């Protein structure tokens, strides 16, 4: 991979830092009037998702990371791995549980997720922002109670538990925002 | 098509104009003479960390001036008395949220004053320029470099071993700092561990480390450590001014130029033409004086509470 110097650091650039792929979030040019110039850089470690701040001397460089984001269709899991397919080439990739991470309770077969590949293997998975999933378990629906503000927990077929209005029932399909885990509405 | 519009709003342009006119009024009342020295010269500064923009004039190399300092000191040596300059200065490579390669600098010299007298005047002028905007008064804090360094790090910056500073810098950043110079380590530590904790309002920090003297005199502080008679002013933690009790000793100045030039060579930085006319002026006698430069764009940023220099310039480099 190419090396990138501090003046090429841009938000979104993927670089290697201490052996881990990182994504640059911010690069601030810092220079005391009479002193040496620095780059104060905020990076997200793509393996751990942790955000860290590092100061580099201007002109220092980091190796680029072989990281790319790709839309892929989720196929199935065999319990050990989760399988995703590139829609154009039909090439399949297997992701480990740690790569699937927080996306796990939202994955429905056929959904298109954004898979981040590092050296060709899935490093992380982002579910679609909105998903439609069936409720498999919740207290019986209170018929007609559509106006009250109350809510109750509902377990979805994918394993996630979300708060839903009282009138919903087992078997209903709901729309959820995966970024917040919030109920968005009932799908007719 | 690219955006052609200015970065500063009409209101900001008016504020800028008002600021320039307040500065002129301030110095007029105090009988400090405005001088309009060249922004283009045949020589430039040797400072290791300041890159000059070169230009070419009828086949001769020229430099856009990184500050009006040498021309102003030549005027002082010629007997002008107190003077100020307000105009453009240029520094290569400085592009960022708070940096533009061309910026507006206000620099002035007070003959017979020491650094502390000048600090008071700096605080007065900055307060005046900021107050016009907010209508409330700004707190002024004055503290020595070693006190604010110690308060945040529990370490004396003047007596700490170089290896201690290098280890700390490496911990804050990366292993590549482990053999850095004292001045660079101090800058890194100060900008990341002290600056963010400076009080709101106007802060003046004085008695900088000896290794960061630039064109300031060296003297000893109240506990007998060598320090440079250099100070800086910060507005809400952002560096906006740098001042000195000026070095008047031509031979010492010559030594510093040579040391800078050697360091430039070692670090493979472009060689620069040393300003012999400036050295000659010092030899003929620079009056005892204190001088300071303020970045007016940064000050306007502070006055308006904006965080990007692009917002206070008609056209920042990005828009040129």
Overview of the structural elements:
The complex is a heterodimer of chains A (188) and B (320). By secondary structure, chain A is an all-beta fold. Chain A folds into three domains: 3-63, SH3 type barrels, CATH 2.30.30; 67-126, Nucleic acid-binding proteins (OB fold (Dihydrolipoamide Acetyltransferase, E2P), Beta Barrel), CATH 2.40.50.140; 130-187, OB fold (Dihydrolipoamide Acetyltransferase, E2P), CATH 2.40.50. Chain A is built from one helix and 16 strands. Chain A has a five-stranded antiparallel β-sheet. A five-stranded antiparallel β-sheet of chain A has the order 14-13-12-15-16, with no helix packed on it. In chain A, β13 (151-156) and β14 form a beta hairpin. Chain A is elongated and about 75 Å long. Chain A starts with a strand and ends with a strand. Chain B has a domain at 10-139 and 241-319: Bira Bifunctional Protein, Domain 2 (BirA Bifunctional Protein, domain 2). The two termini of chain B are 14 Å apart. The mean pLDDT of chain B is 94. Chain B has helices at residues 10-29, 69-77, 115-134, 145-153, 162-172, 182-194, 250-266, 276-285, 296-304, and strands at 33-34, 40-41, 53-57, 60-64, 83-90, 102-111, 140-144, 202-209, 218-220, 226-235, 238-245, 289-295. In chain B, the strands form two sheets. In chain B, strands 1, 5, 6, 7, 8, 9, 10, 11 and 12 form a nine-stranded mixed β-sheet that branches. In chain B, strands 2-4-3 form a three-stranded antiparallel β-sheet, with no helix packed on it. The interface between A and B is medium-sized, with 18 and 28 residues.
């Amino acid at each position: 991979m190419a090396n990138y110097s501090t003046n090429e650091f841009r938000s979104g650039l993927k670089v290697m830092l201490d052996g881990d792929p990182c994504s640059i979030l911010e690069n601030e040019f810092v220079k005391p009037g009479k002193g040496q110039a620095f780059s104060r850089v905020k990076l997200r470690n793509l393996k751990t998702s942790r955000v860290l701040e590092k100061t580099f001397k201007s002109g220092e460089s980091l190796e680029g990371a072989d990281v790319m984001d790709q839309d892929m269709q989720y196929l199935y899991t065999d319990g050990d791995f989760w399988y995703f397919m590139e829609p154009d080439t039909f090439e399949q990739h297997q992701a480990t549980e740690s790569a699937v991470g927080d996306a796990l309770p939202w994955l429905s077969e056929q959904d298109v997720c954004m898979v981040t590949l590092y050296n060709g293997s899935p490093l992380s998975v982002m579910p679609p922002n909105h998903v439609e999933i069936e409720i498999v378990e919740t207290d019986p629906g209170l018929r007609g109670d559509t106006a009250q503000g109350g809510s109750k927990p509902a377990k979805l077929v994918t394993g996630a538990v979300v708060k839903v209005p009282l009138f919903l029932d087992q078997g209903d399909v709901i729309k959820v925002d995966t970024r917040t885990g919030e109920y968005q509405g009932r799908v007719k | 098509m690219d955006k052609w519009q200015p970065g500063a709003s009409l209101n900001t342009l008016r504020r800028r104009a008002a600021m320039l006119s307040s500065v002129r009024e301030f110095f007029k009342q105090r009988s400090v003479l405005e001088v309009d020295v060249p922004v283009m010269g045949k020589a430039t500064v040797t400072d290791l960390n300041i890159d000059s923009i070169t230009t070419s004039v009828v086949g001769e190399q020229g430099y856009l001036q990184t500050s009006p300092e040498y021309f102003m000191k030549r005027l002082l040596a010629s007997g002008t008395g107190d003077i100020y300059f307000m105009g453009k200065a240029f520094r290569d490579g400085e592009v960022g949220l708070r940096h533009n390669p061309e910026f507006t600098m206000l620099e002035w010299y007070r003959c017979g004053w020491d650094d502390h007298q000048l600090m008071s005047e700096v605080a007065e002028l900055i307060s005046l320029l900021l107050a016009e905007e907010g209508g409330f008064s700004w707190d002024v804090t004055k503290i020595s470099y070693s006190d604010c360094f110690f308060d945040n790090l529990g370490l004396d910056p003047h007596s700490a071993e170089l290896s201690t500073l290098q280890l700390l810098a490496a911990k804050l950043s990366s292993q590549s700092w482990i053999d850095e110079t004292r001045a660079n380590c101090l800058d890194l530590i100060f900008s990341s561990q002290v600056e963010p904790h400076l009080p709101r309002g106007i802060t003046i920090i004085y008695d900088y480390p000896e290794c960061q003297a630039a064109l300031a005199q060296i003297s000893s502080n109240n506990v007998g450590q060598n320090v440079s008679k250099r100070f800086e002013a910060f507005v809400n933690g952002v560096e906006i001014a740098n001042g000195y009790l000026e070095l008047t000793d031509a031979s010492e100045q010559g030594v510093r130029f040579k040391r800078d030039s050697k360091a430039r060579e070692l670090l493979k930085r472009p060689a620069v033409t040393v300003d012999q006319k400036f050295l000659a002026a010092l030899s003929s006698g620079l009056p005892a004086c204190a001088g300071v430069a303020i970045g007016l764009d940064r000050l306007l940023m502070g006055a308006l509470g904006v965080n990007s220099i692009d917002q206070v310039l008609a056209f920042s480099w990005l828009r040129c």
